[in-house]
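Hi V.,

You were right to ask for the full record rather than a summary. Here it is.
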Amino acid sequence: MHSGMDRLSVPALGVLLVAIALAAAAPAYIPTHDGPQHVYAVHVANHLGDVARGWSGWFEIARPVTSLGFAALFGPLDLWLPWPTALRGALAALALFWAIAVWALARALHPARAWLGLALGGAAFGWTFYMGFFSFHLATSLGLLLLAWAIAARPATPGRIAVLSLALGGVAVLHVMSAALTGALLAALFWRRAPRGALGATALVVAGVALPSLCIALALFWPGSAALGDPNAGPPSHAPAPWWALAKCFAGGPAWRAWLLTLLALAAPIVALVRRGSARSAEDEALLVAGGVLLALAAWLPLSLASWEYFSPRFLPFAITALVVSLPIERLARPLRAATAFALASFALASTAWAWTYHERNALASAEALSGLDAGIVRSGVRLPIVLDTGADPDLPLARAAMPFALPWVNLGQLYAASQGGVTPYGFVTHPRMHHLVVRPDAPRAPALDRSYLEELSRPGRANDSAFRTAILTYLASHAGAFEDVIFFGRPEEADLLHALGFSEDWRRGGLSIARFRGCPVTVHVSPAIARSGALAIETGWLPVSHPHARYAFAHGVAAPDGSLALPLRETCAGLWLRVAEGGAACDGADGEGHLLVASTLAAPDVVCREPAETWTPPSPPAVAAPAPRGGPASAGAATASRPASSGSAARAGARNAR
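Predicted structure:
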């Protein structure tokens, strides 16, 4: 018999769902870590034929077997609505599915436990949501809903087992890890329900239920798990997540929001031990065992794997939910049960209210970063995102951050590429069985810069080291000539620096700059003695970075009758260094490393490189580099440069050695 208090959980759920929908859809934009990557991939797949934005020349549609959860929600909406509106609708659906699933699971165990499900609904906007693990988030919700059906319907007939098997396979299509963890809970459920002496037959049933999802996992992992990772990523640490991740990497937020549900989960085994002499249902035993094992794995396994970033926290939604809903609050005395129900409902609403204010604050903080999305810019080439302000506070310890490890603006460039066209080097476009797009075999090779310098910027003290930030920006900007434009977001004075380096702004607001490299003409006059010294080229670099930026062969210079050369270049408009490559010669005035320093090429466009004892002046009139035409390559009219391979480690090394 359901009490009147238990029936109140239904309208309470309705109120919570309305609050969740408003918290998701009302803000103009909710920043997430990986979210822009998924938005870009699905949006481009939907609009691949947009000729002006050039996507069809870079990508072809892949046939992923999993990670389709977000595409199932966002894809149809994106076909008919602007992507920001479609995204708001998809995020609202994601959060609503979670709240419904956990409430249904708790209520399937006992009507009084629906209040526990309501409290779990307060984690609809949890850590996986803000990390942008959208497909995992949706698949987890549907996996828990499938578990609720298995508890309520007790599938024992071949038909119901077949339905369960196909449904679990559907969860695997949405996200394979969610299916694996759902399968673990279902296996525990069948095991605890199995009659004595029927474990062998139960194992066969479990294998049959898991078969479709196992086939999907096999199709994904057949080339090996290494194929899933970023080939440019460094080896991860094999250390487990810090202890506070048990709370911060589930619900997240302030301590009261992060820890309540985790503490309830930790209390569940203690309550079970205290009540070990009391009767307990097979369902509760299954959830206690499976939830406890998953929680232990979340605490013990590495935070990240080589092929999977932030691996261990993905066990937490299943572990904490299973343990919390196993708490037998229906055994509490009626007054205490009513107080508990009120407290749990209050937590759910307060948690959602916090999320709403968090969204509004972040939307306001993101206004400048997103201000250029509707600037009317159209691109079709490779674009270089440089994001020095990622939205996280590096001086705040991770344990105190609202959502640790989340960098809300780190993938900002993907949003601009979705709105304006073009490609960036950092998209999720490498694995045809997991990603929606793959790079065409005949597409040009897109240059890429390793973004591991972001790790350095996230260290306390580094983010506010203006010399270090200047060196990083200068190093990255020095490689922008290979890109159609730069999408920069940082501090306003850094956007000013980008302009001073020789970038023409197509859009600027505060620390946001969408700009193309134009540079300044520079003529290097190489004396006859240097030209005959055996040297083959001039190397250049942008001050204050010591790492070489480009190399110009003497063979491409303009020869004069006296044996001298003029190399017309197009380089930074700010500080430049150059040195003679090989041959042992050095320009007069060079430092101990052979670097001849030019404070400003805008002010001194003619540079003379002669030996210290050589009395030579350039012939008149000197060769002059032609200006780059508007809309043309920045190197037009300049000597051909060969550029060294770039990497994030080179960026860090160049910054550390900045003059």
